[in-house]
Write a structure and sequence with these properties.
6-stranded antiparallel sheet; single chain; DUF11 domain-containing protein; 6-stranded mixed sheet; flat; 193 residues; mainly beta
């Protein structure tokens, strides 16, 4: 079966797309909700954006911000057997079986501490999630809308079974106590299909 040649030059089909989009929810008692959609291919190895959230309690609607940066790196091994993260660029040639690491950096630029921040990264259709997810205790989703603690489980023939990682569409973390200018880092690894 012939594989699609999209992986030979990962930027051709997606040249007009951005690495991610941000959907910020409302701040309720200093709570931020941020989503980022990682795509493969990625048009840039890193892209900075600002997510703006409105305070539900404030009548003057003062804007508060979370600066966001998403990166995609190819996992490789050097001559000494040490693992290297090589940023994905428009010159990167990806093949089926390559392992990528997506990292999201979320920096609190609000004047106050954010008590709780919910961060969601989508999983591109062209890759399959691997068990390497950090920080620990994330939530997973098979539809991108409903989240449960990982590993996800379902009933098949009246027996509880784990959902295969190939079915995951997004990963979410709840991060507590993010101080002014503190940066939260979340990441997952995925294999190119």
């Amino acid at each position: 079966m012939k594989k699609s040649n999209q992986l030979a030059n990962p930027f051709t089909a997606w040249a007009g797309h951005r690495l991610f989009h941000i959907v910020a929810g409302t701040l309720i008692g200093a709570m931020a909700v941020t989503q980022a959609s990682a795509m493969l291919p990625t048009p840039e190895p890193a892209l900075d954006n600002t997510a703006t959230a409105q305070s539900a309690e404030s009548s003057n609607s003062s804007a508060q911000a979370i600066n966001t940066k998403i990166t995609a790196s190819l996992i490789s091994v050097d001559a000494n057997g040490q693992e290297l993260l090589v940023p994905v660029t428009d010159k990167t040639r990806l093949q089926s079986g390559n392992i990528l690491e997506y990292q999201g950096f979320f920096t609190n630029t609000n004047p106050d501490r954010v008590r709780k921040m919910t961060v969601t990264l989508t999983i591109p259709e062209q890759v399959e999630l691997l068990r390497t997810v950090a920080p620990d205790f994330p939530y997973g989703s098979v539809d991108g809308n409903t989240f449960s603690r990982m590993p996800l489980r379902t009933r098949v023939d009246n027996q509880l079974q784990e959902v295969g990682l190939e079915h995951y569409k997004a990963v979410r973390w709840d991060v507590e106590g993010v101080g002014l200018n503190d940066t939260v880092v979340v990441k997952y690894r995925a294999k190119v299909k």
